[in-house]
Design goal:
Helices cover about 80% and strands about 5% of the residues. By secondary structure, it is mainly α. The protein has two domains: about 5-145, no CATH class; about 180-275. A hairpin with a 2-residue loop joins strand 1 and strand 2 (about 10). Keywords: Coiled coil, Membrane, Transmembrane, Transmembrane helix.
Length: about 300
């Protein structure tokens, strides 16, 4: 296993560096979230305590920056460039894969499409200097202390757990997108039915009113043509007029109730979808509070609002 070499490191070392830096990156994100929110937030893309982008980034950065280790200026400049490129490509790839923008730096100055910004790029540059000068030498010595046999067993176990977690997370994100699709569709139907309700009520009101007025005119005409002593007929016509009015009002009420019943059912389904507790969906949204859906923007915002209420 140690004979296999990638990026200048043995595969054994690469896997250990990936795991360690992915875990340290997760710790860094948790600390950052705690400072900004005052509470614990699992900031990783995966469910477990790892941020793969940190693991991948650390392996690439350490290998590529090793020649500049003793030149702080070049080390800083190349660190900024490499980490920014990695963050940009990762953000773009995730958006293309899931149709969701997982983080957005648009509110920061000197950003590029919200994927990267000067503030964090400079922070990554400083972080890389600390890693190359202080952190990585310690990690190298730590990995050397682990017996190879035990290390292989540990790496195999962690790899299996990582793959399971990755599959589970991808499934969670796909189900979240399906949930957003249903919310979006129901929201559209509610708007459509509401428009139909308004148009239908207006149309039916005008038609029923026309019929009522026509019949009322005919009844009043017959009523006026009666002699003053035809009291019974006059009462009958008056009752007919009242009956027609009640029938008109009842017809309108039935029409409204029919439309309102459909809208009420849609709203109930909408409420269930947006209010249903799913701790995995909640974790994803809490981990990436700036996440934006390219297809279901309003649906995701509604889901965010309901999640932050709880």
């Amino acid at each position: 296993m140690e004979n296999i070499t990638i990026l200048g490191f043995a595969l054994y070392e690469i896997l250990f560096y990936f795991v360690i830096y992915a875990f340290l990156g997760w710790c860094l994100e948790v600390v950052y979230a705690a400072v900004n929110t005052g509470s614990f937030v699992n900031r990783g893309f995966l469910n477990g305590p790892v941020c793969p982008i940190y693991g991948v980034g650390a392996v690439i950065v350490i290998d590529l920056l090793m020649p500049f280790r003793d030149n702080l200026v070049l080390l800083f400049i190349t660190s900024v460039f490499i980490t920014s490129l990695l963050e940009y490509v990762t953000g773009l790839a995730l958006e293309k894969l899931f149709n969701d923008k997982w983080w957005d730096y648009s509110q920061y100055p000197f950003n590029i499409r919200g994927y990267i910004c000067l503030k964090f790029s400079l922070a990554w540059g400083i972080g890389c200097i600390l890693t190359m000068k202080i952190i990585h030498p310690v990690i190298v010595e730590f990995v050397k202390l682990i017996p190879t046999f035990l290390g292989n067993i540990l790496l195999l176990s962690l790899t299996i757990v990582f793959v399971i977690d990755l599959v589970s997370t991808v499934d969670t994100v796909m189900k979240l997108n399906f949930r957003l699709k249903r919310i979006h569709e129901i929201s559209g139907k509610i708007k459509e039915k509401s428009n139909i309700l308004g148009e239908g009520i207006s149309r039916d009101t005008i038609e029923l009113k026309r019929k009522y007025e026509y019949q009322a005119v005919e009844i009043r005409k017959k009523y006026n043509d009666l002699s003053e002593d035809a009291i019974e007929l006059k009462e009958k016509y008056q009752n007919d007029l009242i009956e027609i009015k009640e029938k008109y009002e009842n017809s309108l009420a039935e029409i409204r109730e029919g439309y309102e019943r459909e809208i009420s059912e849609l709203k109930e389904n909408y409420k269930k979808l947006t209010g249903r507790r799913n701790h995995l969906h909640r974790r994803i949204i809490r981990a990436f509070p700036d996440i934006k859906s390219n297809r279901y923007f309003e649906a995701l915002n509604e889901l965010k609002r309901n999640i932050t209420k709880k």
